[in-house]
Amino acid sequence: MAGEKPPPSARQLDLLERAYQYALERGIAELSLRPLASAIGSSPRVLLYLFGSKDGLVRALLDRARSDELALLERLNALNGHRPVGLEVAAEQIWSWLADSSHRPLLTLWVEAYGRSLVEPGGPWGDFALSTVDDWLAVLAAAQPPQHRATEAGHQQRTLVLAVLRGALLDLLATGDEQRATAAVQAQLEMLRAASAAGASS
Questions:
Q1: Helix, strand, or coil here: 33?
Q2: Which residues, including other chains, have CB under 8 Å from residue 98's CB and lie 6 or more apart?
Q3: How far apart are CA 59 and CA 56, in angstroms?
Q4: In whole angstroms, what is the distance from residue 79 CA to residue 65 CA?
Q5: Longest CA–CA separation in the chain, Å
Q6: What is the mean pLDDT of residues 75-96?
Q7: Roughly what angle, to the nearest 10 degrees, separates helices 54-79 and 44-51?
Q8: How far is CA 54 from CA 20, 124, 167, 178, 179, in A?
Q9: How many CB atoms lie within 10 A of CB 80?
Q10: What keywords are annotated for this sequence in UniProt (predicted)?
Q11: CB 85: neighbour CB atoms within 10 A?
Q12: Rounded CA gap, 153 and 157, in Å?
């Protein structure tokens, strides 16, 4: 169809994956093409040819990071049999993944991109933050009972859970204090359980 972009070549996919691993180690806020190209066995000219511009490469890296995020959400849905398991259970599963130290490079990159998208909404970061919020709210909504997720209370509860998870993640990345951050998340989820039980019995 006219206007459609051709699929990426094997070479482009290979360099994107190498650049992504580079970004996980060093971030992308101050990304410079020359040292990046040298590190991944390419040249600035080739990268510009394949991705159109530096901004094009940054957008491709952000898309790659988001694909990891979406893969996580899909794994959680599959783990739960694609059925509502309750907001608290879903939040515990998400936090367990967020707190895993092996995921720190990806999450640091995610926070970097999230922040840049807020201060440079017209740049290659675009709507990264908004898309991320929508992605996480969608998986939390799917965990809620259908009769509850469409209510105002349901929307407020998953918004609160997302805020707790995001805040605890920022704290964890800054301090490395997993025990304290996890205790705070668990305390909030216990409060949510108590509120849900009280609502169900009333």
A1: helix
A2: 107, 165, 168, 169, 172
A3: 5
A4: 21
A5: 67
A6: 83
A7: 60
A8: 14, 9, 31, 36, 40
A9: 17
A10: DNA-binding
A11: 18
A12: 6
Rounded Cα distance, 27 and 125, in Å: 13
Instruction: Tell me if 37 sits within 8 A of 122, measured CB to CB.
Output: no
pLDDT of 30 > 50? The answer is yes
Copy the structure tokens of residue 102.
């092996």
Query: What is the reported pTM?
Result: 0.81
Structure tokens at 183: 């205790």
What gap in Å lies between CA 187 and CA 149, rounded to an integer?
22
Q: CA 189, CA 194: separation in Å to the nearest integer?
A: 9
pLDDT of residue 200: 60
Length reported for the chain: 202
**In the predicted model, is pLDDT for residue 170 greater than 50?**
yes
151-160 per-position pLDDT tens digit = 999 999 999 9
**Does residue 173 carry a pLDDT above 50?**
yes
| Phi, psi of 43, rounded to the nearest 5 degrees | -140, 155
DSSP letters along 68-103, please?
HHHHHHHHHHHHTTTS---HHHHHHHHHHHHT-GGG
pLDDT digits (tens, 9 = 90+) for 109-118: 999 989 989 9
85 and 142 Cβ atoms separated by less than 8 Å: no
Amino acid at position 19, single letter: A
Percentages helix, strand, coil for the chain, rounded to the nearest 5? 80, 0, 20
Burial group, residue 57, by CB count within 10 angstroms (0-12, 13-18, 19+): buried
